[in-house]
Amino acid sequence: MAVLGALSIAPMTGYAVREQIRETLGHFWSESFGQIYPALAEFERLAMIERLDTGDSRSSPFAITDQGTARLRELLAGEPQQPKPRNGLMLRLFFGRQLGPEACRELVLSARAQAESQLAHMQDARNDLAKDTDLDDDAPYILLTISAGEHGATASIAWADEALRAIESLAAQKAQPRPHATFTEERP
Amino acid sequence: MAVLGALSIAPMTGYAVREQIRETLGHFWSESFGQIYPALAEFERLAMIERLDTGDSRSSPFAITDQGTARLRELLAGEPQQPKPRNGLMLRLFFGRQLGPEACRELVLSARAQAESQLAHMQDARNDLAKDTDLDDDAPYILLTISAGEHGATASIAWADEALRAIESLAAQKAQPRPHATFTEERP
DNA sequence: CTCGCCATGTAAAGGGTTACATGATTCT
DNA sequence: AGAATCATGTAACCCTTTACATGGCGAG
Question: Which residues does B25 contact at the CB level (< 8 Å), separation at least 6?
């Protein structure tokens, strides 16, 4: 789906397909050469894509055919099955007691930094999209995904800040565990 | 890591490990029997866990040993590598032009419903956690993950609402495409 | 008694990444 | 000339899920 989709935006080589997916879909999707080249071969066999004959010797990009577009629409129309979640950060925090507050703090800080960088990347993408007039037709849809990235990153940052406060109060509590609270309470 | 972590909270059978992971970590992690039982066998071989001898014939839960706890800490301390993202919803929206506004609207609506249900689930988890006094030590850390789930779900809902407005204006624009704009402009 | 759940496993198949091999072209 | 990048592939390996096989036990 990703490969056909990439070719539906512009003809390109397999190498370029991967670059495009990395650059524009990097936060939502990824494909490796081991997937892309066999897929291209299969699609060509099924006449869903065809090699363009440019005068250029070194590059012969693929273009999507009508059959390919039809197949892409079919695939897009299928139910999106979300893969089993595997969030290493959350797994570690869940068992954070074994790790201790300091290590957890590091984890959250690093997650915050990542979210911050994702946010910046999304804003770059927004600017690039505005400039690229070739993408006018796709732009409204691509904007939806950029907006999702922004919302997600912003939420991560807000969560991280909240979590950092919680962890600090946790560490403080541990270092100085309610000095004689029960005793003072018992004093009349 | 997930299996040792589960056993670090309480001794339980392999079956129960899976139930626990599904119920409490479901939004962040998942394991199948095909992973859990071989892992348990290996851990037992390495003396990281041991079978408890309850009088009960049908259930002999595993308990984590000191070596197991040490290994768990080692694993938790490792860098969390986030897996390659695979977000079917975003992939579809990115190529949404091929799908059309209506289908995209359905996708976003369904995502919104999912986020709504996740939010409810997180609030349940919060309540359950407050009740369960066995988890007092782990609770502060578990709360971090619950909070992350809430932030994420809330962000998804906000994004979905924004996206729905964008899609509607897109559909309206398509249905009624600027009637004769260029002609009227050219008239003196 | 039978159905469904608890419980334990295993083998096959699928999906995917990594690493390697190869060569042309372009840049320095 | 040498390094980096573009470009295409492939094979091994790894992780994981799925499906099946098996059996004890409790409830209706």
Answer: A90, A91, A94, B2
For B50, phi then psi, to 5°, come to -145, 150
Within this chain, do residues A22 and A62 fall inside the same structural domain, yes or no? yes
Structural domain for B120, as ranges: 88-177
- Asked if the C-beta of B52 comes within 8 angstroms of chain A's C-beta atoms, the answer is no
- What is the number of domains present in chain B? 2
DSSP E strands in A16-59: the ranges are: 49-51
* Same domain, residue pair B168 and B95: yes
| Sign of the alpha-carbon dihedral angle for B39, B43, B45, B51 | negative
Q: Please check whether residues A62 and A95 belong to one and the same domain.
A: no
Strand D closer than 7 A to residue A41 Cβ: yes
Q: Which residues 82 to 141 of A reach strand D, CB within 7 A? A: 84, 86
Same domain, B71 and B119: no
User: Measured between CB atoms, which of A77, A99, A142 is closest to B76?
Assistant: A99
Task: Identify the domain boundary among A77, A106, A123.
Answer: A77
Chain B residues lying within 8 Å of A21, measured CB to CB: none
Residues A68-112: tens digit of each pLDDT: 999 999 999 999 988 899 999 999 999 999 999 999 999 999 999
Closest CA to the C1' of C7: that residue is B15
Average pLDDT over chain B reads 92
Interface check for B136 against chain A (CB to CB < 8 A): the answer is no
Which of A49, A77, A105 finishes a domain? Answer: A77
> What is the token pair recorded at B60?
């002999």
